[in-house]
């Protein structure tokens, strides 16, 4: 628990007597104007605890958070806290050790509302004259929509954009042309039909959409209405998504071994038996995969025919100050540093993270310092748009009971159950869970 106290200093202004006449002293000399010093910045050393609620490696925390902060504000130190035994957000709050800052994604913010940790940063934004116009507009719309009152709980650090990754060797062995920008899911499925096959005991799958949740993003669907707390899964939008996912997985030799699993990344990165994978930014993970033989490139994320060039919802990693923190001013300085053009450029060049700033020059530098990305079609990330995300219930996170109900309903549908029955059963399970939360 933090024990350092912050002392605030005001400037001491000495008021000198004003002499009559033309401001001359007794000797007839003109008196100098008194010097007024600006308020001294409080440089009392403090340590801020940052709860890491979304994926980022320790080396990147050091490069993008710790080092730039120490350079500009040497009196401010940050201490990352990862969720683990004894350090879940629930346990930290219960122990009176709530963090000062939270690093999460926009869809994860409602989870922290349950613990009354979200803090409206608007007064600090105004006080520090923070220019919100620097940030991507749909991102800011999404963040402000999380609060019914338009409060701002966090500022964006990096944007997750979707793309279609492909294994060039599988394409080459089958004599199939590589994916192109502008494809629909139907186009991608036609390629998958040519690529899905078995070689001995190895099954090579043509296309992995990762999960039905990822596939639902272009329609901005939720399976719980955040306002009513009722299931929203039984809808025409989810029917379209279920049918698309079934069409993909029903391609001969393209069925994933586990329809309940979220993660198809290992099949692409490690096993290297998946020809195409549609997912978020994997660039930081591709160096190791490339060293282990993965010959890859990237194309624009496929679109639904009725949602051309829409890859999904705004998915952004953010940092916010907690309501309980004693160091809100210092927390704002941390966020100021990591969202600066200097750090955003470093982040793009050295770690291939997509900047949250509305700055095309930074976008052009994506992965510029990473040799393994040279020659890759990184422009593909910027060919599609993301729509402002609907406010999500905290119970839409992976491994919650509602999430499991949705995944099970798709598995049941894929294995032959009527789609209306599958969706209705998911709806009933979700409502039963949500009703239980109210008791």
From TrEMBL:
Residues 1-26 form the signal peptide. Gene3D superfamilies: Periplasmic binding protein-like II. It comes from the Bacteria. PROSITE patterns: PROKAR_LIPOPROTEIN. InterPro entries: Bact_solute-bd_prot1 (IPR050490), SBP (IPR006059). Keywords: Signal. This is Extracellular solute-binding protein. It comes from Paenibacillus hemerocallicola.
